[in-house]
Each structure stands twice: as structure tokens, then as C-alpha cells.
Design brief:
Helix content is 43%, strand content 20%. With 311 residues, it is α/β, with parallel strands linked by helices. Helix 3 (92-109) links the parallel strand 4 (73-76) and strand 5 (114-117). Helix 3 packs parallel to helix 4 (122-133) and helix 5 crosses helix 6 (199-210).
Length: 311
């Protein structure tokens, strides 16, 4: 049996994820969308690229979830993308309905899959997916921290004039505005960032990272980032399929870790064949703890809004 990945949403993020997964030779991909013809057209285009990209993976476009039966991993990108001036939270109730609907249908055909949620607002959408799927928390994982830390790494590497390969960046908390970067756990070839950069400059790069999604939305004018989000998903899929046990910041349900109970937050996890196999807890200063708890409070507001709307 070939490894099978379903990507739901054949828009910018979904189609680019499919392309990256195929070209990395990781798995066959089933691309699903509500719009008829869209996943079929993009899949056919990608099939025709295969001889030139030197891979033998297959991709199928479909509007029918029964085609996705027994997928190993399901990536959820379906939803509305942010428009200029629109916050992630504006999208909350619309995307909750979309994510709830697609997860319900997908898990019916793939009850053992690992879910990777990409649709924003991310942390809230992981709550929806947990609730609708009934899956254990190990198999419902949000993609946010990998993207936020990649953005931070790119800015640090550019600023210091060093290779991105030597920069690691550690982020906690919710996606975007309330993200909690931890510079003292971020390094350049093992050297803590505060040794190499002034506090004010670090703060500027942190602010740029927090606004990383909005910066791209403002430039594109229509739609939002998709190359780096798709690369982030590829990283996670690769760690799961090859059971690499990469330590990656991902959004998972916390049950007491970091003093947070019953809320989805970005934390470092060990990502392997079993999904989020372990949560790694690090010690935090009083300021860092306060920032994490304020990030948790903003996710709680979204969860309460969804509950009040009956989602
Ligand atoms: N079922 C399946 N697909 C759906 C549904 C649904 N109920 N509703 C919408 N879609 C599809 C749309 O038809 C579209 O093709 O989801 C796709 C979304 O694609 P884009 O509009 O191009 O958005 P994209 O940039 O890919 O972002 C998708 O990922 O990063 C997040 O914030 C981003 O929440 C957004 C999501």
C-alpha cells in the first residue's frame, strides 16, 4: 500500500502543499475541494509535471470524500483566506463551520489518520477539529509554530548575515499576534541569540515575526501567504511519515502542561508516527509565563465565542 495523504482545500496553501509533498516523493496525494473541477484541474496539472520533476507519486483531485478512504495524514486548508484589513479572528465563525464540516466527512473515511490543521484562526480551528473528530490529542495537530519560527529564523539569518541552516528559533503560544518568541532559547549554531544581537534589535525582529502574516497580506492585496505555510506542512508530514521525531513547535491541546488545561497552544512537541508523541516543557521566566498566559487568554476568547455561537 502506498502512503496516502489527503489535502482538503485546493487553494493556494492546499495546492502548494500537494506540490511540495509530491515533489519530495513522500506520498500519493488526494486533493479535495468543494468547488467542482478545481482539485481535478490542479491535480492534472501536477500529474503532467511529474515526468519533469522526476517523481512517481500520484495525485488525484476529487470532490468526494469516499476517495480519501484510509488516508494516513489529512491536511486541512479549507476555508476563507484573510483579506487586507481583516483580522484572523474575523474569520472565526465562517471557518469553524467549514473546518467542522470537512473534518466530519474526512474522519468518517479515515478514522486512524493524523490531522494537520492549517486553516486560521489556527488554535481555534484545532479545537473544532478535536471536537468534531473525537480523536485523541496526539492525532490533531495545528501548523503554526513551524511557520512562525521559520519567519523568525529567516529574519535573524538575514540580519546577522549567516546561513538560515545555523539559526534555530523557539516560539510558544498562539499563532500570530499573541505568539511568544523566546530569544534566549533561539540560537545561532548553539550561541544564544542575546549574545549576538542587541535586545532592541531582537524586539524589532520579534514584532516583524508577529506581524509576518499581515505583512504579506498587505503586499499581496488579495489572499495570504502560502509558500512558507506549505513548506511548514511538508516539514510536519515528513516527520510523521518517516517517524523522525523532530522537535517542532506545534499547536496541541494542553492538559496541564505549562499550567494550561483544556486549551490549544503552540508548544514544542516530538512529532513522529504516533503524531504529537510528547510535549516538551521548558522553564519560563515570570515575564514569559505571563506572555504565554495572555496568549492562552486570547485563544480562550475565541473558544468562548464559538461556544456561544453553538459551533
Ligand atoms: N470544503 C472544501 N474546500 C473548501 C470549503 C469546503 N467546505 N470551503 C472552502 N474551500 C476551499 C475553497 O474553495 C478554496 O479553494 O478552500 C480553498 C481555500 O483556498 P484559498 O482561498 O486560496 O486560501 P489559502 O490561501 O489556501 O488559505 C487557506 O490556510 O493559511 C490558512 O489563513 C489561511 O485559513 C486560510 C487557509
Amino acid at each position: 500500500m502506498r502512503t496516502k495523504i489527503t489535502v482538503i482545500g485546493a487553494g493556494n496553501v492546499g495546492a502548494t502543499c500537494a506540490q511540495r509533498i509530491l515533489e519530495a516523493g513522500l506520498a500519493d496525494v488526494y486533493l479535495v475541494d468543494v468547488v467542482e473541477g478545481l482539485p481535478q484541474g490542479k491535480a492534472l496539472d501536477l500529474v503532467e509535471a511529474a515526468p519533469l520533476q522526476h517523481h512517481d507519486q500520484m495525485i488525484y483531485g476529487t470532490n468526494d470524500y469516499s476517495d480519501t478512504t484510509e488516508s494516513d495524514v489529512i491536511v486541512v486548508t479549507a476555508g476563507l483566506a484573510r483579506q487586507p484589513g481583516m483580522s484572523r479572528d474575523d474569520l472565526l465563525l465562517k471557518n469553524a463551520a467549514i473546518v467542522g464540516g470537512v473534518v466530519r466527512q474526512a474522519v468518517h473515511y479515515s478514522p486512524n489518520a493524523i490531522l494537520i490543521i492549517v486553516t486560521n484562526p489556527l488554535d481555534a480551528m484545532v479545537h473544532v477539529a478535536l471536537q468534531v473528530s473525537g480523536f485523541p490529542r496526539e492525532r490533531v495537530i495545528g501548523m503554526a509554530g513551524v511557520l512562525d519560527s521559520a519567519r523568525f529564523r529567516a529574519f535573524i539569518a538575514d540580519d546577522l548575515g549567516v546561513s538560515t541552516a545555523d539559526v534555530t528559533a523557539f516560539v510558544l503560544g498562539g499563532h500570530g499576534d499573541t505568539m511568544v518568541p523566546l530569544p534566549r532559547y533561539s540560537t545561532v549554531a548553539g550561541i544564544p541569540l542575546p549574545e549576538l544581537m542587541k535586545a532592541e534589535r531582537i524586539e524589532e525582529l520579534v514584532t516583524r515575526t508577529r506581524n509576518g502574516g499581515a505583512e504579506i497580506v498587505a503586499l499581496l492585496k488579495a489572499g495570504s501567504a502560502f509558500y512558507a505555510p506549505a513548506s511548514s506542512v511538508l516539514h510536519m508530514v515528513d516527520s510523521i511519515l518517516d517517524d523522525r521525531k523532530r522537535v517542532l513547535p506545534c499547536a496541541v491541546l494542553l492538559l496541564g502542561e505549562y499550567g494550561i488545561d483544556g486549551l490549544v497552544m503552540g508548544v514544542p512537541i516530538v512529532l513522529g508516527a504516533g503524531g504529537a508523541e510528547r510535549i516538551i516543557e521548558v522553564s519560563l521566566t515570570a515575564d514569559e509565563k505571563a506572555a504565554l498566559h495572555s496568549s492562552a487568554a486570547s485563544v480562550q476568547v475565541l473558544v468562548d465565542t464559538m461556544a456561544a455561537a453553538g459551533k
